[in-house]
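Batch job 17 of 40 flagged for manual review because the log was empty.
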Amino acid sequence: MAKPTIETIPDLLVRNVPREIIMAIEEGLVVGAQRAYSAARGMDDGHLPSVVGQLRHFHMNESFQRALAVSDAAPSPIRGNAIVTGRTGVFTLARFNIKEGLWVNGRRSQTRRQMSMANKAIEPLVQPELFADYEPPSEAVAFFVACFAGSLHIQPESPVSIQIAVPDRHMQGWLFRESIDAFAKRYDQKPVSQQDDLAMPKLKKNSGKQDKDGTTQ
């Protein structure tokens, strides 16, 4: 008997996080970034990078929280610098901003590192051959990461990309990372098991034709 295939982390995300939540968060983060840049315009060039960075945090936190609320994803309240989280299926969702290429900055937050410990349960999905036993997780964490250019001279009003990222338990690496644009296409892909079920066997031509004596050819 063939060994059952263990689902992948993208499979787990698609099964637990509806496409509507993904798209609402993407739209909200873009709107939040635009509001932040508009609010910072007019500040002295010496202050501008710091002001834009702080306003991005606040405006994008608010738009992220609203996107979670509209999607019935149980958002946490906005309280100062506290991380805003939501919940859908087994996943707790959160967000942060980085400069493009500086993914190590994501682990600076102690709260994010503590949250990521839940992903110990899904690490076997990356290398299932190393784990004899695997049980579907009851808790996991995914982050929406808005990547900005390192200079305000390059697309200052919006992220250059927004990615969905699943860290390992220590937040020292990424079990899965993909742009939302690419990830959204996964919802249109049917699971292999469903594709197999739809493959109906075809009878050979004339296989149902009978001879005069009643026997089937």
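Reviewer: the log was empty due to a logging misconfiguration, but the result itself is present. The beta strands are 86-88, 91-99, 140-148, 161-167, 174-179. Unflagging and moving on to job 18.
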